């Protein structure tokens, strides 16, 4: 069934795209704020951020091939403070110097209690780890809490809308690089065979995905970058003497994906072929 369109309202609080954002969705009680770390001090008076909710700390680290995120919850304290107060505590934590912007999720009617935020924090950490887009800095998955089936259904509906809004804001933290259903459609899958290696991949709107279970060459060229070598080590397993990918990996181009498989420079438009033998280049030329 075709999905319906969504009406998202994006408000530039500071009148500029690099500033603070407030985002809402039609017929949804949720509110999502993006706050650059450098603008926490001028956000003190936002009443909505004194409420309970879930927050994300987004950033990156030099030695990681992924962006990083820490996910937490904040309840209303005795001093009347909530989300922003908790985020500011992290701002003063020297061990969390990687993050550059915070995202806070709350409601327009201040309806989150301890049960709701515990459940949402648990589910969000779980979904973020499953999507494998970000390096999730949380150690253990938070406790799910004790929710009724009615409340669970209500919170899952809330979360579905939050995923849409955060995705529209540019945070694809919940989105896997390729849908599971697409992996079973052979007409959408490309294969790269070289010597005894068989790798499978798929084009997406973001680039080219090397699918989990693809073979990798044991030998790699000396010219391969340290970043690619690190990416290989994090995403392969040695099974019966063969290197096999253990995750779906997104590349900016089919050539980058093919080169990752072979360990040296390869033209992706020639290497990747359909089940009928057509090259990716052939397919592109027909489009």
Protein traits:
26% strand; 26% helix; 7 helices; elongated; 2 domains; alpha+beta; GIY-YIG_endonuc; DUF4357; 287 residues; GIY-YIG nuclease family protein; single chain
Describe the protein's architecture and organization.
The protein is built from seven helices and 14 strands. α2 crosses α3. The two termini are 25 Å apart. Strands 1-2-3-6-4-5-7 form a seven-stranded mixed beta sheet. By secondary structure, it is α+β, with helices and mostly antiparallel strands. The longest helix is centred in the middle third of the chain and has 20 residues, at 149-168. The model has no long low-confidence stretch (mean pLDDT 92). It has two domains: 8-168, no CATH class; 181-286, no CATH class. It has helices spanning 83-91, 114-131, 149-168, 226-234, 254-262, 268-271, 280-286; strands spanning 8-12, 21-25, 30-36, 53-60, 67-74, 99-107, 135-136, 190-194, 197-204, 207-210, 215-216, 236-239, 242-245, 249-251. Helix content is 26%, strand content 26%. β1 (8-12) and β2 form a beta hairpin.
Fraction of residues in H or I helices: 25-40%
Kindly state the number of beta strands: 14
Instruction: Name the overall outline.
Output: elongated
- Spatial order of strands in the largest sheet: 1-2-3-6-4-5-7
Overall pLDDT metric: 92
**N-to-C SSE series?**
EEEEEHEHEHEEEEHEEEHHH
Domain GIY-YIG: 50-136
Pfam family, one: DUF4357
Protein name: GIY-YIG nuclease family protein
Write the layout of secondary structure elements.
Elements: E1 8-12, E2 21-25, E3 30-36, E4 53-60, E5 67-74, H1 83-91, E6 99-107, H2 114-131, E7 135-136, H3 149-168, E8 190-194, E9 197-204, E10 207-210, E11 215-216, H4 226-234, E12 236-239, E13 242-245, E14 249-251, H5 254-262, H6 268-271, H7 280-286
Parallel strand pairs: 5-7
Antiparallel strand pairs: 1-2, 2-3, 3-6, 4-5, 4-6, 8-9, 9-10, 10-14, 11-13, 12-13
